[in-house]
Amino acid sequence: MKTLQLLDMTVAVFDQDALCSQFDTLNNYEPHLTPILEKIIQPDFNIVDAGCHLGFHTARFSRLVPDGVVYAFDINEEALDLLEHTIKNNKLTNVKVYRKGLSRVSKKIKYRKNIHPDQNSLYESYSKTFTGEAEAELVTLDELNLGKVHLLKLDVEGSELDILKGSQALI
Predict the structure, then answer these.
(1) Would the pTM of this model clear 0.70, i.e. be above it?
(2) For residues 95 and 48, what is the distance between their CA atoms, to the nearest angstrom?
(3) Spatial separation of the C-alpha atoms in residues 127 and 119, rounded to whole Å
(4) What is the distance between the alpha carbons of residues 170 and 22, in angstroms, rounded to a whole number?
(5) What is the full per-residue pLDDT of the chain (171 aa) written as tens digits?
(6) What is the DSSP string of 52-69?
């Protein structure tokens, strides 16, 4: 594990991750989205971050919604351990981490772990360079009864439609 400065936060990242190496020079993640998100997100928003991975967006959302809650979901245990480190280091008290994936139905599954930890997927076509299998629990957003959610951020390597189908009541 190493840490990087990302905007006004210290973020824990994998030592060997091509995606993370760009932050050493950019000091931002998906900088084209930051100004858009800052315009639309209100301080009392509740946000679901599905496929939160290391939590770059989760941490940013947390700072933007001091009166709201950020619900962070992922199936990558190693990435979630780093996210927990980021949450603790930055005192992000409004983040709830779920070590689960989201889908249209609740179930336990096996998935292919990718050599690139940001590209794990439930679908074979998304994980061509895999290192093995892992197990995960999937749940629907509807069964969690999160209350009002103002924004869904979905970055789940092909499972976006399944998540929406499991969020009919929420939407």
Answers:
(1) yes
(2) 10
(3) 7
(4) 36
(5) 888 777 788 888 877 665 665 555 555 677 788 889 999 999 999 999 999 988 989 999 999 999 999 999 999 898 999 999 999 999 999 999 999 999 999 999 988 776 655 555 555 555 566 677 889 999 999 999 999 999 999 998 788 999 999 999 998
(6) -TT-HHHHHHHHH-TTS-
